[in-house]
Amino acid sequence: MPSPILIASTDIDRRLLVMTVDGPLVDPDHLEALRLVVPAVPAGHSLIVDVSGVSGFSHEAIAALRSVARDAVETGQTFVVVCSDLDRRTDLVLADLDTLVPVVAAVEQAIPFTSTAA
User: Fold this and answer.
1) Which domains are present in the chain?
2) Global pTM?
3) Looking at the predicted structure, is the pLDDT value of residue 117 above 80?
4) What 3-state class would DSSP assign to 46?
5) Residue 42: pLDDT band with limits 50, 70, 90
6) Start-to-end CA span in the chain (Å)
7) Partner residues linked to 11 by β-bridges
8) Residue 81 bridge partners (DSSP)
9) Rounded distance between C-alpha atoms, residue 13 and residue 88, angstroms
């Protein structure tokens, strides 16, 4: 089964780590790499996870993403999910991901939720 590609980029001035996910997000085990990133985010930085490039979600993968988000929130990490595709974003909202962390349509919309907005 193909796995997604995770690409990390940082913005020192805004104190952000942006994880871009491309490809299928079907196997919940593929989210373990993202789970390992959460504790490694530098103190005072926010984590934005952009799943706009994901070609499809399984219910299990969405549940795993929700679990990663819950872990981030419990450790005090600012975590925002970006998904530009309306149908996939709707799937995330219907899975109640937005009750844990903001789910927005663009990275620009995620910035106000980060520590740089404080």
Assistant:
1) 5-117 (3.30.750.24)
2) 0.93
3) no
4) strand
5) confident
6) 41
7) 16
8) 49, 103
9) 30
